[in-house]
Amino acid sequence: MWLSWVVSCQAGEEAVEWFDFIAKQAARLLAVRDADLFVLAVHEAVVNAVKEAKRAGGGSRTISLSFFVTADDVTVMVEDEGDGISLETIERLASMTLADVLLAESGRGLLLIREAMDAMAWMERPDGRRVLVMAMKRKAGWEGGDG
Amino acid sequence: MEQHRFLFELERIAKPAYDCVVLTGRLAYHTQLAAEQKLAAAAAAVEHPLVIVDTSGLQFLDSTGLALLVRFFKRVVSAGRAMAIVVRENAMIEKILLIAKLDRLLPIAADEQQVLALAPLSSPGPIEQAVLLEAWQQRRAEGRDGSG
Predict the structure, then answer these.
(1) Which CATH number fits domain A3-137: 3.40.50.300, 1.10.3720.10, 1.10.10.10, 3.30.565.10?
(2) What Pfam families does the record point to (chain A) (predicted)?
(3) pLDDT digits (tens, 9 = 90+) for A82-96
(4) What are phi and psi of B82, to 5 degrees?
C-alpha cells in the first residue's frame, strides 16, 4: 500500500505546536521505527521553517508538510516560502556532527534531524529552492490499526 | 492550542551535599524565554560545588532546549562547579541527550546515587567537571553503574 497527504499551515508560532500534534499522530498510526525521534525531527524542521519565515518578515507565509507512506517507510517533505537553504550551508553541515557543536548554543537542529531519521536530503525545486526531505523506516510487521 | 502545553517549570532544591535542579514540562522552542530566565536564576543561586539537574520530568526536549541546557552547564562550570544530569526512567529524554552527545560533557546518570557514588565526590571542596566526567566514564567502562 501507499498513502500521501499534504498539510499546510500559516508560518506563525502556533505552526510548531500544530505540526507537533500531527507528527505524534502520524508516528503512532504509521508505526515508525522510533516515534520520539520522528516527532523531534519534524519539530526541528518546522521550527527552522518558522524561524526562516520570521527572518523574512512574513507571518503570512505558509509551511507545508507532505507525507509519503509506503509499507517500508514514511517520508516527510518540509516546504516553506522562504529562500531555502544555501548550498554552502548544506556543504558545511555535511562535514559536521553533533560532537562538533557540543558547547554551541545554536546550530543543532538539522544535525539532530540527520541523527534522528534514517535518511535526510535536500531536493532542489524547479525554481532553484531546496526543500528538506527526510525518511524513517516503519516497524517490521506493521499491518495497520492504531498500534 | 491549550496554554498548559507550553509550560516549563524549574525548582531548585538545596540538598545537604549538592544542588538539585528539577525540570518539568517542555524545554523547547516555545518555552525558551521563560526557561532561559529560570535557568539563569537557578545558576546564580547555586550553593554547592555539585549541581544535579533532574530531567526526568521533561515531556519534550528539542535543539533549543539542548542549547539552554548547554548554556546552563557553561554557567555552572565557569563558576567553578560541576554538573551532572539524571534521567531516571525517562527514556525519551535520555535518548535525545545521548544523540546530542552531551554525555561527552557531563555524566548522564539514572539517579543521584550513581553520581554521588563517584570517587571525586567523596572529598569535600570544589569539583572539577573534567575530573567528575572522567570518573563517570571510567565507571561506565567498568560496567559498575548497573545501567548497561
Answers:
(1) 3.30.565.10
(2) HATPase_c_2
(3) 777 888 888 889 999
(4) -120, 155
Cα separation, A60 vs A110, whole angstroms: 24
Cα–chain-centroid distance for residue B102?
Answer: 10
Three-class DSSP category at B109 = strand
Query: Domains (ranges, CATH) in chain B?
Result: 3-141 (3.30.750.24)
Range B60-80 burial, b when 16+ CB lie within 10 A, else e: bbbbbbbbbbbbbbebbbeee
Domain spans, chain A: 3-137
Q: A14 CA to chain B: closest CA distance, Å?
A: 8
Only one residue has cell 529552492, namely A129
Count of Cβ atoms closer than 10 Å to residue A76 Cβ: 23
Helix, strand, or coil (residue B25): strand
Q: Are A80 and B102 in contact (CB under 8 A)?
A: no
CA distance A115 to A102: 15
Is the distance from CB of A28 to CB of A70 less than 8 angstroms? no
Exposure of B61 in the CB half-sphere (CA atoms within 13 A): 25
Binary contact (A108, B71; C-beta < 8 A): no
Chain A partners of B66 at a C-beta cutoff of 8 Å? 108
pLDDT tens sequence across B39-48: 999 999 999 9
Residues of A whose CB is below 8 A from B28: 43
Q: Closest residue of A to B74, CA-based? A: A103
Interface contact B62-A43, CB threshold 8 A:
yes
Asked if the interface predicted TM-score (ipTM) of this complex is over 0.85, the answer is yes
Nearest-CA residue of chain A relative to B62? A40
pLDDT over 50 at B82, yes or no: yes
